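For the sake of transparency, this paper describes our internal protein records without simplification. Such a record has a labelled line for the sequence and another for the backbone structure tokens. Nothing more is needed to write down the fold, since each code stands for a local backbone conformation. For reference, a complete record is included directly beneath this paragraph.
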Amino acid sequence: MEIEEHYHEVLHMLEGVLLYIFKGLSTDYREEIELIRTIYPSEEFLLPEPGKEVRLTFAEGQALLRSEGPPEFANVSDTEDMSTPQEKALGALVRKKFNTDFYVLDKFPIDARPFYAMPDPENPAVTNAYDFMMRGQEILSGGQRLHLPHELEKTIRAKGLDPNQPGIKEYVDVFRSVGVPPHGGGGIGLDRVVAWYLNLPSVHLVCDYPRTPKRLSP
């Protein structure tokens, strides 16, 4: 969506949509949820109180892991992306500290995001990019994208890539030929949303045709 003043307009829109869905699920589909729990037991999916949504910067999440997390995360860095074990450990801390299984991590480091992520104008070491988390696992990745072609080319080169190589050149050419306003969004993993809402042991349980390194068909 187009950004008028700040990329958090996009973040709040996505957050609001998901919270609305989660609240509806807990009331309108209670019978179905309880049926699934007879096979795959799980604790209730906790939501933040209205007006108390949990939004942490990446650095704040890492600081929480360093101060209150397991010993193996005592030295996690603010400049390197989180591993899956780190994400799960942070999810457990957020649940205990804020009483919610749903939260946002914002301001990811520049090296943890692709070339099209918009750097923070006040701190170019981080980006205007975020992940949405459920039970300590990512279900949405998004943020503000670069929209000026010369800035795109600059960040592409900074990543060690050639802005004129096939695939990337066509991407940049769109911004040069038609012009694009400031914008942002997010890619929602619907299979993950369902799996982690119900705390299922595998996302494959909610996929009609799961793909794995050992299964390419049907």
Remarks:
- The chain has seven helices and seven strands.
- The first helix runs from residue 8 to 28.
- The radius of gyration is 19 Å.
- The first strand starts at residue 55 and ends at 57.
